[in-house]
Amino acid sequence: MPALSAAPPLTARPGKATSSTAARRLDLDVVRGVAILLALGWHFSPEPSGNAVLDALQWPGHQFGWAGVDLFFVLSGFLMGQLVLKERARTGRFDGRRFTARRLLRLWPVLYVFLAVQALVGDESAGTYLWQNALHVQNYAGTTLPHLWSLAVEEHFYLLLAVLFPLFARRRGSVRPLVAVLVAVLVGSLALRGIGVATGVGEVQLQWRTHFRMDALAAGVLLAVLRVHAPAAFDRLARRRWLWLAGTAAGVWFLATVGKMGAVGSTLGYTVAYLTGAAFLLLLHGSTWVPRAGWLTRPTAALGRYSYGIYIWHVFAAEQVLDLMPGWDYDSHDPVAQLVKFGAAIAAGVLATLLLERPVLRLRDRLVPTPARPTPAPSEQPAATVPLRRPTTDALRSAA
After folding, report:
1. C-alpha separations of 224 from 192, 200, 281, 342 in Å
2. Res 270: pLDDT
3. Cα separation of 160 and 211, whole Å?
4. Across the chain, what does the average pLDDT equal?
5. 184 close to 161: Cβ distance less than 8 angstroms
6. Minimal CA–CA distance to 226: which of 236, 216, 217?
7. Gap between the Cα atoms of 112 and 135, Å rounded
8. Contact between residue 27 and residue 290 where contact means Cβ atoms under 8 Å apart
9. What integer pLDDT is reported at residue 218 of this predicted model?
10. Can you give the pLDDT at residue 191?
11. By C-alpha distance, which of 74, 32, 87, 24 is closest to 391?
12. DSSP for 235-258?
């Protein structure tokens, strides 16, 4: 892999974008794009389509697309962790209420409009699913919208972060207590999954419930701690491209052969999933080949920019469009049906982002603004021999 030196810019052109969409990093949007493609492949291609080319393209999603959620978790923890750690380093405190308000204004408009549409035109009565998802308890209370379980895990984790991090933020000294807590989450989640398997907890519960799955988010926050408090060490770590390529390949092999079923898959499988996601994130982070391979990375990054809307709406959009086509339904797996599923999901996600998410983000930035971006301290400036562009505050805001 090429070294980091003389790395070209990794941020998108600002143009007329607002602070919520400006200065996005191409490499991180590629990670989002890969994650959403894995998730779509898992839901849309449980059976071969009969077309060799299409089946080859869908193989990752078909085999281990469930791990796309873990990749989302790692990236989310990495970005959210940087936001809170930089605020703490800059101000000596952390405003959990502002953090929570910004999170809700980012997530709720797209989600609640989706739930309202489900209540109006969905196949089942609103009472069977609406309140669970609206209150983010669907991973414990059950839901007829199963793909939304991961939202509950994220919101539970960040609610804990908003409540507990201010206590840590008052300590202006070492971040070691935070690191210790995060490592405890990694160990504890794996131990709880092991106990769950031994006591007969179902595989769906092991995948969905927050206390079994917070480790992927904690792993992302650990990377953020390194990024914020030891940036030179993080850059040295990220430059080991062959190590992260090997780690990603080994993780993919495990996920494709062992998966998430059975005693090993339900315990170590989720650990391997987030470790593979972390390796893939480090493989792409700041890499010179990401902008150079723009013919591949830029379309993938474009999907990443719409990934939240796509994820919320993809199953419903595919069902609705295929129901309008005689001879097809959501369970159809021939090449035409597969292409229709992906097309409908992407179109719905783009519309949800343009019509709901981005307007509300612009309103959010006026109602609940982030603190002004400070001038980086000299120790935070990139070394002269490694001119890597670090994520700006604006780039991180879009994830908040």
Report:
1. 25, 35, 12, 33
2. 97
3. 12
4. 86
5. no
6. 236
7. 11
8. yes
9. 97
10. 98
11. 24
12. HHHHT-HHHHHHHHHHHHHHHHHT
